[in-house]
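In this section we walk through a basic example: taking a raw amino acid sequence and producing a predicted 3D structure, encoded as discrete structure tokens. The instruction is simple. Fold the sequence below.
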Amino acid sequence: MKTTTLAKSCLSIAILYAMSTTSYAQEEKYTWKISGWINEGLTYYDDGVGSDVAQLSDNGTTLGSRITLSGNYVLKSHGIDAGFEVIVEPLSGSPNYAGGGQQTPLLFANQDNLDTFNGGDIGLLGSSFYVAGEWGKVTIGLQSMPTDNIAVLADPSGTIWSGISPLFRANGFFIRNVDENAVNGTWGQFAQCLATPGLGIGLDCNGIFRNGVRYDLPQMGDVSIAVGYANDEIFDIAVKYSSEHSGFKTNLHGGYSVNKDGGSNIGGNSSSTLQIQGGLMHIKSGVFGLATYQMEEADDAIVGSGDDTDSYYFKMGIRKQFNKFGDSAFYAEYASYNDQYGMAHLDGVTSSALTQWGLAAEQYFDSRFLIYVKYENLNLKVEGTENARSIYNDAEDLALVQLGGTIFF
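The resulting token sequence is shown next.
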């Protein structure tokens, strides 16, 4: 028995060795690579009642640490390019944090559980393959759908590592009343996405990897168009324009998605999301600006649940090489997430406005390493019953300071 097992093991090793020595990667038509980035930071918070410092994987799943394995096989004679992409990401935290399961950077646990963020794991973010030709590109699998990151990547300055429109870093922190004992939910409860239940990030509300099929049309000059279908009955379309003309870099991205599978956190049988982001940068001076808008609606939702929401995000600053190390960037940002309380009469709330503003500085070291520091402040105002107004309108602001870094490979 032992001899048989040993023989099987040796045979398996021999097969693996033979496969490795005759790797497809040695073929001229085949290429593969490992790429990605590691993004980590220190976060200091002050919620008006308590304060602390914690080390966290920074800035959510969109820009959190990830490792991508990709490759493609080109058959020029047939006009076909076939390839794949597998993306994994480190998951922060411990299985024992409140709520259970591993803690992904996308939805931070609240500050009372920061001391349980020890250890971690690796999770699968995406796994897909594609076939492309002159007719376009079809991708199948767990992937970034057309309207994913529509509210993120039109930033011509590239200062997305420290600041983007979704409410990533703050959404799991408690809203504190003047009374230390009055803990009334988290900031993310007032930034709920209708189309993606439980996603309390305010903007980029279809911004998650989904199992589906995506078709990218052939590039049309400065314009690209993609359409997608994801499980279950989620349709989206995205149009992107990017150009450099007369000394300006211009980006304009727009997307529309429909979730027909009752995809709403407030009931109803369907929801829709419209997102637009535009950015402009003067190349010589480095001065840039960015504006983002999102509107969500849900059909047949629970009365008084906030079934018609909108969000805004603005950024303005400068990115230029001021020293020998590389580019430096300085900017200010402002966001408003409106009527996204996402539950019927949450403590008597009938309308809400969560505002966020921030200041940030980034320093690049060539193109593969950067460090940044950022200050953010969150404030909440609501309409509703006297009880709702007394709870939330008197709540303390949340202040966050991040010192982070990103290295690319």
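Looking at the output, two observations stand out. The chain is about 10% helix and 55% strand. The CA atoms of residues 268 and 300 lie 4 Å apart. In the next section we compare this with other chains.
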